Amino acid sequence: MALSNRVISITEEAYVPASIDGILNSNVFTSRTFMREQKQWSGRQMMVPLQFAKPTSGGSFDGVGDFDTALQDTRVRQTFSHAQFYQNVSIGGGEASLNKTDGEVLDLMYVTLQEAQNAAMDSIGDQFYGTGTGNSFLGLGAIVDDGTNTSTYAGLTRTSYTQLNSTLLAASGGAVTFTGMATVMRGASAAGSRRQRPSIVVTTETVFDLLESLYQPNITSNYDALSRVQITTYSKPGVAYKDQDSLKGHQGFEALYWRGIPIVADEKADSGAMFFINEDYLHWYNLKGVGLTQYKVPKVQVDGVASEYNQVYPIQWSGFDKPYNQYAQIGQFIMLGNLISGQTRRHGKYSAITTV
Length: 356
What we know:
The protein is of the alpha+beta class. The chain has one domain (29-47, 79-351): phage-related protein like fold, CATH 3.90.1690. It has nine helices and 20 strands.
């Protein structure tokens, strides 16, 4: 409706006291990674020993025997370097001054800080599915691989050390099947061990919906097994909650349950892929930055998916500086460390899924 100056000249505008996030989407894998146990970075590089061979100096013997006492090399070092990420925050002095008049609806500084922190976590979520190229953090593209995307990992070649290879399988004809899932699960697991197997499957919304359709013919006869399931950012690896609308402040993600582990959709996941992840062997190693502080932005109304998570990420704050030649405040959110898996063979990937 077009308004005349008779109304416009004497009627104030009103703002809803919330900023609506129209950009960011779900970031499930990143959220769970940061809310589980975090490791502390120490030293110039992190070294994770890997046993690549079984000692062969043993066996049956007769009488007093003739033992093989030769020394054997069975271990090698996996070497990890840290990476760095920043998200800038700039606030003009004049704009901040105007915001602090009696016309303030939302605090400009806090809204800008919240948007920057959310943007940082979203960008890091993209890197967590990448291959760690350039200055990026290591991601699932490098960790869950068999040499297809990354020929080396942790300073070692995957051809020389096949123990670094994850189980990868492309869907036959693009069709997702329980048989294909079982193949990846079996390849990434040690039979009979609960810890030596994937604890969660992360996939796209499209693949999640395709997989859900496989369950449909069995709903009537297996209702209890297929009832509503959730996981949270805080739940232990492999643990899901059934039929719980209230999770007492913990962020919940809708999930399917298969072989005792949850399957959850994440909009950051690679198209057509299911990642079988053993969370016991995948951790964020956090490096404390000199001159940086842990900082949680005071709660403000930035209404979007990131605000639902309600969690403190291991992101650090530089504080605001005032440039000598500008009337402004400038600071950075900074994250130091890396995503490390010392046991990559306990992960898997089911890819090229387009149909059922």
